[in-house]
Amino acid sequence: MEFIYTRPVMGELKEKTIRFLHGASLDFDEGSEFTVNLMENGEILATGSRQGKVLKCLAVSKDARGRGLSALIVTELVRDAVSAGFTHLFLYTKPENGRIFETLGFYPVAGTDDVLLLENVKSGVEKFVNSLECPVKKGKIGCIVANCDPMTKGHLYLVETAARSCDFLHLFILSEDCSRFPAEVRMMLARQSVGHLRNVAVHPTGDYLISAATFPDYFIQDKACAENIHCMLDLTIFAQKFAGLLHITTRFVGSEPFSPTTDCYNRVMKEYLPSQKIEVEIVPRLEIGGLAVSAGRVRELLKKGKWEEIRELVPPATYDYLKKADWYERCGRTEA
Length: 336
Fold this sequence. Notes:
336 residues; alpha/beta; Aminopeptidase; Rossmann fold; seven-stranded mixed β-sheet; five-stranded parallel β-sheet; 12 helices; disordered C terminus
C-alpha cells in the first residue's frame, strides 16, 4: 500500500476518486484543498480530503474494511491540517458512521437524523459558549444571528426592536469568511453600531453556527433536501449547545422578502425552536423610501458609487468605514 497526496486532486486520479466515492454513496467535494488516497495495485482502498479545518469525503473500500484504514487516512489528514495551521478540526458524517470517528479522537457536537457534526476537541462547543459574555441569566433573554455583510440600518432596527423587549440580547455575527466583508470587519461594525444599547452583547459564532455557503453536502444523496438538513443541524446546535448555557428564551429574525434560502431557514426555525422551549419572533423588515433595506442592496450601490443612497441605508459607523479610500483593499477585495 502507498499514500498518494494531491493538492488538489486532479486529472485521472480525480476521476478515479470520484468513482470510488460514488461507490460509497458519496460525492466528491470540489472545495477540497488536499486529498489523500491509499492505493494498492493501482486501486483506491481508502480516501479522504480536507478543506480548511474540515475533514471530508472519507471512505474505505468494502473489501478493505476492518484493516484500520480509516485511522490511517484520518492520521494523514490531521497531519496535513496541523502543518497548514489548523489544530481544531471538524468532521461531518452520516449518524451511523459516528462511532468510527469517535474511536479516532473526534467528539460529537450535535446531530440530526441525517447528519452528525464532530470535532477533535472534547467539549469544545461548551467551552466556547461558556467563554461568551452572559451577565443576565433571568427574564427574557433574546438572540439574533446575523451575517451583517455589511451592517445596515435594517440590522440595527432589528437589534433595537429586539433589545427593547428583552432583559438582555445576544447578537451573534457569523465568523465564517465566506462573505464580501471579512468577519473581523463585520464584527467591528456591528459592535460600533450597537454600542449605545447597554443590554446587548455582540459575539462571534465561532465554528459552530454555520452558513449554508459552507455546509458540506457530499454525503447527502438527495441534494434538494440539503438545505433543510443544514437548517436542522444549525438549529439543533443552537438549541442544544447555545440557548441553554446562555439562558436564551427568544430568537429574533427579520422578515425575508429577498432570499428563498433565508426564508426557508426562518420557516424551519418557527417549526422547530418552540419545541425546544425557544420562542421565535419575526420582526418586519425596515423600509426606507418604500423599499426594504438589505445588505445586498448596499453592496449593489457600492459597485455604482452611489454614496448618498448608501448613507440613507447604513449606520454612521458603516458609512464612515466604506468611505475610506482603502476599504476594499483592507477587505481583501479588488472591486468597489
